[in-house]
Amino acid sequence: MYRLTQFLAVVTALIGGLVLLTLVLMTTASIIGRFINGMLHGDFFQGALNTLAQAVLDLGIGEINGNYELLEAGVAFAIFSFLPICQFYGSHASVDVFTAFLSRRTNRWIIAFWEVILTAVTFLIIWRLYEGMQRYIGNGETTLFLQFPVWWAYAASFVSGVVACIVAIYCAVIRIIEAVRGVSILPREQGAH
Q1: What is the pLDDT, as a whole number, of residue 98?
Q2: Which end of the chain has fewer surrounding CB within 10 Å, N or C?
């Protein structure tokens, strides 16, 4: 079960990373296109090089249509895609100012407690995400420029969220086992401190 959960977390994070990289490239291309478009509409190019400027503008140089819509949907998906790997490797930010003085056993129980709380919060978020997705499926709302259904973004995030829930349950159970037995099974405390 350890390897399967780790595999799910890693694959989901890799997919989220690819989506995020694609969004960065798309946004960069959109910004460059907008800059070139603005430059070609400037006085110099419209006066002295009007024919060349118009030929380049006719190629469609400019901002990518629907860039903001894709960015909004993609970033939400990426965030949900990174939750499982953060959960599995214990990479969420933690502050141990007060717990540094406590015994290892006590710290294991504190970690287990917060792992269970985080699992419950993850389920709450995914449940509400599912409800929002159902609402958008029902009302048929689409995005302004690209006209794709809003629920598609919710569905993509929901799939990553389900993986996050599976990983969260596994991690909560294992952290409780770690606290009871006094052993380390999962990696932990690799996040920011």
Answers
A1: 80
A2: N
